[in-house]
Amino acid sequence: MQLSKSEEELMNILWKQKKAYMKDLLEAYEAPKPATTTIATLLKRMTDKGFVAYNLFGRAREYYPLVRKKDYFSKHLNGLIKNFFNDSAGQFASFFTKETNLSKTELEDLKKLIDQELKKK
Question: Could you tell me which residues are beta bridge partners of residue 20?
């Protein structure tokens, strides 16, 4: 299951804060801040989707993520590779390195990461 753009924005805030009350989430937004009802609706949808849960303290809810950021984006990226690059990581890597205007230093860093992964296998 996937999050909408608004849900992803809120989820990023929650991943950073790890646990947060509604007021904490609202404070994390830049102006113009969304309405409290908008955040409440997003949190309800995200809870229904299984991305967020909460602990109840009286009438206050402390929200926390059920899905790790790394896991969400890994699944998202793998879906992108499957759907847009014929399930070929090589095609994705080729596109990524050619179309993102990486500097020579960034490409060298990427090469080091790939070399390190090759040594592990």
Answer: 63
